[in-house]
Specification:
The structure is a single chain. The protein is an alpha/beta fold and 442 residues long. 42% of the residues lie in helices and 15% in strands. The protein has 20 helices and 16 strands. The chain has a six-stranded mixed sheet with strand order 1-3-2-4-13-7. A four-stranded mixed sheet has the order 9-10-8-11. The radius of gyration is 23 Å and the shape is globular.
Length: 442
């Protein structure tokens, strides 16, 4: 855990009031939609955030926010593996210890009762969720209401060894073909790093969803019942599992792999392809974490299945706690934090406050399409934008963690050699019992 607090002094405020810089401050207030006159001066906001260089970059810039508003900030950073437990604890404590919280989108529905709706505030200040790709926007909403802004969000890309693969795979059939060729030409390197392990975070569903949605199947039917056990869904699941069980193009350790293990396998040169979130790119050629050089690492969009590409997107929104005593000041902070110019700067400026920041994550459509952002990041935003045009998110219902765990267990058992149809049908029956008990279906 790390904390950092920035303080604004009265002397600095007085100097700004008497200085020509004040006109620049007025311009920034307008740009960020911040209220004039520092109505919340002296307020201190406590912010709970996941550990990531992206948010380090924002934290190192927030002296500007303090100068403009007089609002002080203190950030508490939590590793992702511990963040869900911390979020759950904050919801139970209901004491407003944190004014602004950061969480994984699928954790939003179970915690929606204490996350502030911001639609009226956005309308008042002229902010639209249309500035984000549709999947990112939906990930920060619950039952048609907006809970926050998706400040950290990820599309999926296929990364591959440019020194081993001449043409990137456009389809999953290409992945199989290339994988079998690599097994002949480079038998010491596994073709594909996947992660089938039932790890408690449902990571083995991330790539499966590409197959399911592209097949025209879905997770739930219109009436809310489980939908993945249709013939189309079963076949899509079989094809996902058979990458490992039949075609043998996956790393032999994929049954035990979680996403981090798969990334390590790629970085250590033990696997030649990996479908994973775009944020992983810089780590793949970072000499502190990888044996690969930058010229060995390339990326492309996710492969098509049955001629269709539809990908899974994920986000980590920031929201205001309903238990906070500083909700109005927290809204000023969210406006500053989520500004499109901040989004762009955080992916193009490599040193902030004397610290190196390597970050390619942006969430605004304007940043994804921005030539300067793409030039600074090898065009990865352009590839991500293509991926996001047809993408979706996990179901935003409170029961999803329990249902997702049922699915994840079935996928892991199938990858270990179990009967796909039996397992997925049984998983659908169990999920329907959960949904019926919760009153979500009849």
């Amino acid at each position: 855990m790390r904390k950092r607090t920035f303080l604004s002094t009265l002397a600095l405020g007085a100097m700004m009031a008497l200085s020509p810089v004040m006109s620049a401050a007025d311009g920034h207030l307008e740009k960020y939609n911040l209220l004039p006159g520092k109505p919340f001066e002296g307020t201190k906001l406590n912010i709970l955030s996941v550990v990531t260089p992206q948010f380090d970059g924002l934290m190192l810039r927030d002296q500007e926010f303090t100068d403009l508003t007089g609002i002080e900030t203190e950030w508490t950073f939590i590793p992702f593996g511990s963040l869900q437990e911390k979020i759950n604890a904050e919801g139970i404590a209901a004491n407003g210890a944190f004014d602004v919280v950061n969480y994984l989108d699928s954790w939003g529905p179970p915690n929606a009762h204490w996350l502030k709706r911001i639609d009226e505030l956005m309308a008042r200040d002229g902010i639209s969720m249309d500035r984000y790709p549709a999947a990112f926007a939906r990930s920060a909403q619950y039952e048609g209401e907006t809970l926050g802004f998706p400040l950290r969000a990820h599309p999926q890309l296929m990364f591959y060894r440019a020194d081993l693969i001449d043409e990137p795979p456009a389809t999953w059939e290409d992945v199989i073909r290339i994988g079998k060729e690599l097994k002949e030409s480079n038998p010491d390197i596994a073709p594909l790093a996947l992660y089938y392990n039932n790890d408690g975070n449902r990571q083995n569903l991330f790539i499966w969803l590409n197959f399911l949605w592209a097949a025209g199947a879905d997770i739930f039917n219109d009436d809310g019942t489980a939908a993945w056990a249709t013939p189309e869904g079963i076949q899509a699941t079989k094809d996902y599992i058979e990458l490992h069980t039949v075609h043998g193009v996956t790393n032999p350790n994929s049954l035990a792999f979680v996403e981090q293990d798969a990334r390590q396998s790629f970085m250590q040169g033990n696997s030649a392809m990996i479908p994973v979130w775009w944020w992983a790119y810089s780590g793949f050629y970072n000499p502190d974490s990888s044996t690969l050089k930058k010229e060995q690492v390339a990326f492309t969009g996710m492969p098509a299945y049955n001629g269709v590409t539809k990908t899974y997107a994920i986000s980590m929104p920031f929201s205001i706690s309903e238990y906070s005593d500083n909700k109005d000041a927290a809204w000023e902070f969210l406006k500053w934090l989520s500004n499109p110019e901040m989004d762009k700067a955080n992916a193009t400026v490599r040193e902030v406050g004397g610290k190196t920041i390597i970050n390619n994550v942006v969430t605004h459509i304007s940043s994804l399409q921005d030539p300067e952002v793409n030039a600074a990041n090898d065009g990865i935003q352009s590839a991500a934008w293509d991926s996001l045009k047809e993408s979706d998110i996990m179901p935003q219902i409170p029961e999803w963690p329990e249902v997702g765990d049922i699915l994840s267990a079935a996928i892991a058992e199938a990858a270990a050699g179990g009967d796909v149809e039996e397992l997925m049908t049984a998983a659908a029956d169990r999920a329907n019992r959960v949904l019926r008990r919760a009153g979500r279906i009849d």
